[in-house]
Amino acid sequence: MYFVQTFNTYSPKNRACKELLDFVQKFERVLIKDELSLDAMIEEIRLGTQEINEKYPKLKKKLLFSSKRLSDKLHRVEASIVSMGCPDYVFFMDVCKVRCIYQFSEKVTASQGAIMPSGIHECERAEDNLRTGHCVNSRKE
């Protein structure tokens, strides 16, 4: 599972940039289920960028789309225009892999006969090391 962790936008330089920003805004703070869905989202943004470039053929500064894997757990998706030989960002987003999922539930413990919040209780057990990301009530993707 992935999450759009960082989403930065910059002042639009023209109508095409404004339209692209309006288009990509829907991906802010989004959970992405798997690698296939991540690839589909990246492709949707690439195609959206291409369509906007085709819609404004007279623009001197075309939108440039880029997507790259920065590490095993981090992807960067960005668009820019070239201004005086240097890229001028329109937006960029960093998509990171979710480490684990925390879920709260109430569970009756047999030894105490009481209802305990298992999410908090289970993660505090000695064999669950939060620094390694192993939590009894969490599911790794």
Which helices and strands appear, and what pairs or packs with what?
Blueprint lengths: L1 E8 L5 H10 L6 E2 L2 H21 L8 E8 L2 E10 L2 E12 L3 E2 L3 E4 L4 E4 H6 L14 E2 L2
Antiparallel strand pairs: 1-2, 1-5, 3-4, 4-5, 6-9, 7-8
Helix pairs in contact: 1-2
Structural notes for this entry:
The protein contains 3 helices and 9 strands; from the N terminus they run βαβαββββββαβ. It has helices at 15-24, 35-55, 118-123, and strands spanning 2-9, 31-32, 64-71, 74-83, 86-97, 101-102, 106-109, 114-117, 138-139. β7 (106-109) and β8 (114-117) form a beta hairpin. It is elongated. The termini are close together. Mean pLDDT is 81; it is low at 120-141.
Q: What is the count of helical runs? A: 3
Order of helices and strands: EHEHEEEEEEHE
- List the strand order in the largest sheet: 2-1-5-4-3
Over all CA atoms, what is the radius of gyration?
21 Å
* Strand-residue proportion: 35-45%
From the structure above, extract its key features:
two-stranded antiparallel sheet, 37% strand, elongated, five-stranded antiparallel β-sheet, disordered C terminus, alpha+beta, 141 residues, 9 strands
Could you provide a short overview of the structure?
The protein is an alpha+beta fold.
